[in-house]
Design brief:
Elements lengths: L23 E6 H4 L6 H10 L3 E8 L9 E7 L3 E2 L2 E2 L6 E2 L5 E7 L2 E7 L4 E6 L4 E4 L3 E7 L5 E7 L5 E2 L1 H6 L3 E5 L5 E5 L7
Antiparallel strand pairs: 1-2, 2-3, 3-12, 4-5, 6-13, 7-10, 7-12, 8-9, 8-11, 14-15
Bound molecules: D-sorbitol-6-phosphate and zinc ion.
Length: 193
């Protein structure tokens, strides 16, 4: 685990995530995410031939710190599984902690929903920043032809709930429509958990 003396300045190449001395580097392949995609036949067909990396991210977490900021960079590779674009698993934060996402390159969407039933899907483009309130589950989706890379900043010591998304999914899906159009459709398998 890398520790930094505060304050500090970092220069990093967002495209060289594996070389960054982060607390954690996490790689999610299709085999880690088969339960998250709708088209199970397509998942099986792809996995029969290869196990592509869907996204990777690094994080520097200020664990057990009463204050401070944790941060990380996520890179989602371009592609789709059936009609669904490559995306992150998505999660809720289980303790109070809002989050900021700032797009560094590529293009994508940020899907969010709250347990109270509010559903939002926002654009993420270079130069745009999205604010995620604590109560909203959040997932990012690469809707472009290039890597989609963004910086995330959140408070220290928050836990991530992946289980709710695994069981119930998101209310909306971001899919390829006619002529490569990006479409947002209702998720037929969504359940309120
Ligand atoms: C952490 C923040 C991001 C995600 C990353 C991967 O609070 O939201 O760093 O961890 O984009 O997504 P996921 O859903 O696999 O954690
Ligand atoms: Zn988060």
């Amino acid at each position: 685990m890398t520790t930094f003396t505060l304050p500090f300045q970092l220069d990093f190449d967002p495209h060289a995530l594996g070389e960054f001395p982060a607390s954690k580097t996490i790689i999610r392949r299709l085999s880690d995410m088969s339960a998250y995609y709708q088209d199970k036949a397509k998942v099986a067909e792809i996995l029969n031939a290869e196990d592509p990396t869907i996204y990777r991210f690094w994080e520097i977490e200020q664990e057990n710190a009463p204050r401070g900021l944790s941060f990380g960079v996520t890179c989602i590779y371009a592609g789709s599984i059936g009609r669904e674009f490559h995306m992150t698993k998505g999660h809720f934060h289980t303790s109070p902690g809002d989050e900021l996402y700032i797009t560094l390159s590529g293009r994508g969407k940020l899907a969010m929903f709250s347990r109270e039933g509010d559903v939002k899907t926002l654009d993420m483009l270079p130069g745009s920043m999205c604010y995620i309130p604590t109560a909203y589950a959040h997932r990012t989706i690469n809707t472009g032809a290039d890597e989609f890379i963004f910086l995330a900043v959140w408070p220290p010591s928050i836990a991530h709930d992946y289980e709710t998304i695994l069981k119930g999914g998101f209310p909306q899906l971001v899919v390829k429509g006619e002529q490569e159009a990006v479409q947002i459709i209702e998720n037929p398998s969504h359940q309120r958990v």
